[in-house]
Amino acid sequence: MTVARTVLVTGGNRGIGFAIAQEFVAQGHRVAVTARSGNGPTGTLTVRADVTDAASVDAAFTEVEAQLGPVEVIVANAGITRDTLLLRMSEDDFTSVIDTNLNGAFRVVKRASKGMLKGRFGRIILVSSVVGLLGSAGQVNYSASKSGLVGLARSVTRELGSRGITANVVAPGFIETEMTAVLPEEQQADYKKSIPAGRFATAQEVARVVTWLASGDAAYISGAVIPIDGGLGMGH
């Protein structure tokens, strides 16, 4: 029997975050999502939040706590890209991606950990990417932000692991989302050739790994990086 938990998914209004929130709802949890615009799936509480602003993050948590109870599972999924080659990348292109993807995860995890320490239970799941460890031309900023999540999760594990709190990273590869759907067929076929599985993942395949990491079955896993990439990043 699954214990119903209070779950907060950042960036839960579309793509992978939406699918993760949907899967938690399907499994009977109390689910909130943060979004700067739009809404999460049916059955979720949507709160406005900008992960680049600590006061905004704090206000979102306060609202979720008031309506659903202390956050027991946090999924740090909110992220942006500003892809361009290194020599064309502006300082702002770099720092804005780091501030959302890495510093944003720090703000969210720091705020979530207060309630988790009180409750002596917590599941922290950071959504990274295969390029965090594999690297990707044109994504120096994004790749750096996503690999930083690994150090974050592992340090949090060492600090909070004795209090019933786990911190793990999932590293998705190519996923069927609105972003990949607009790629030309030829480009999609090229990408699929580099993936041993020969296909993109569904967002639900990512969501189910995330919900499993939040479950009692994964209570002894912490500081791990779980690839969901069809074999693309093997050895990294």
Q: Which class of secondary structure composition applies to the elements?
A: alpha/beta
Number of spatially distinct domains: 1
Q: What CATH architecture would you give?
A: 3-Layer(aba) Sandwich
Going by CATH, what is the homologous superfamily? NAD(P)-binding Rossmann-like Domain
Distance between the ends: 35 Å
Helix residue percentage: 40-55%
Give a topology summary.
Blueprint: E1 6-10, H1 15-26, E2 30-35, E3 45-48, H2 54-68, E4 73-76, H3 91-119, E5 122-127, H4 131-134, H5 140-160, E6 165-172, E7 175-176, H6 178-181, H7 185-194, E8 201-202, H8 203-213, E9 225-228
Parallel strand pairs: 1-2, 1-4, 2-3, 4-5, 5-6, 6-9, 7-8
Molecular structure report:
This protein is of the alpha/beta class. It has helices at residues 15-26, 54-68, 91-119, 131-134, 140-160, 178-181, 185-194, 203-213, and strands at residues 6-10, 30-35, 45-48, 73-76, 122-127, 165-172, 175-176, 201-202, 225-228. The strands form two sheets. Strands 3-2-1-4-5-6-9 form a seven-stranded parallel beta sheet, sandwiched between helices. Strands 7-8 form a two-stranded parallel sheet. Helix 3 (91-119) links the parallel strand 4 and strand 5 (122-127). The longest helix has 29 residues, at 91-119. The termini are far apart. The mean pLDDT is 96.
Give a brief outline of the structure.
The protein is of the alpha/beta class. The protein is built from eight helices and nine strands. It has a seven-stranded parallel β-sheet with strand order 3-2-1-4-5-6-9, with helices on both faces.
